[in-house]
Amino acid sequence: MRSGKLKPYAIIAILLVFTVFCTGASMYLRFRTGTIVYQSWVWDIFLGWVPLTLSLILLEIAGRKRTLFSRFLLTAVGLAWFFFLPNASYLVTELIHVFRDFKPIPHTTFWLHTDFWLGLVVAFSTGLLGLMLFSLSLYIVHRIVSETLGEWYGWLGAGLVVGVSSIGIYIGRFIRWNSWDVISDPQAILRDLLEIVSDDRSRRFMLAFTLLILVVQTVMYLFFYAVAAMGSRQSFKSS
């Protein structure tokens, strides 16, 4: 399948519907619980769509005749995609707010509260949305690289991106840096990372968290890739 002929619009329509649900549910949680943290989910979901949008731009550019200008655009948009990609899977970490901000009634079991399950389901759905945005976005770029440079480079690039994205999610969640800070203040990010690496306890937590996210992203993407490959077959009928 040529990247220029790749038409992921049916999947995008499903993701849009899922996004409306997650956004609406998070706003309802904000209203129901009075917890302001749910308000930030709308912004985080928007950021999760940025890498997919950029990958669609890359798909459009890749489908056209290659010129010096188009190659420049591919490079510029590709770099922006690379730095914004962690924002998609970052949505998985929103699960922390369900346990951090839920206030159960004293002397009762929290798992029998409707608000707890409402928050958990919405947070899980938002995290799943992020992984789906991540997988589709990476799949599009993976196909572009594979068809331009070869399958080996495509898989090598995909593996590298998943690894860097896992570190980026840690940086965003625990150090609280944003994607655009890579350009505006890269030295501060490196300084904070060096401080973490130099501390034994912080380093072990960073490695454990990054590895967990790495596994989740890898499994999700491989599943997505396998389903996409299966769907590209012309027929399931035996000859």
TrEMBL record:
The keyword Nucleus does not apply. The chain crosses the membrane at residues 9-29, 41-61, 73-96, 116-140, 152-171, 205-228. It holds the Pfam family DUF1361. It comes from the Bacteria. Keywords: Membrane, Transmembrane, Transmembrane helix. This is DUF1361 domain-containing protein.
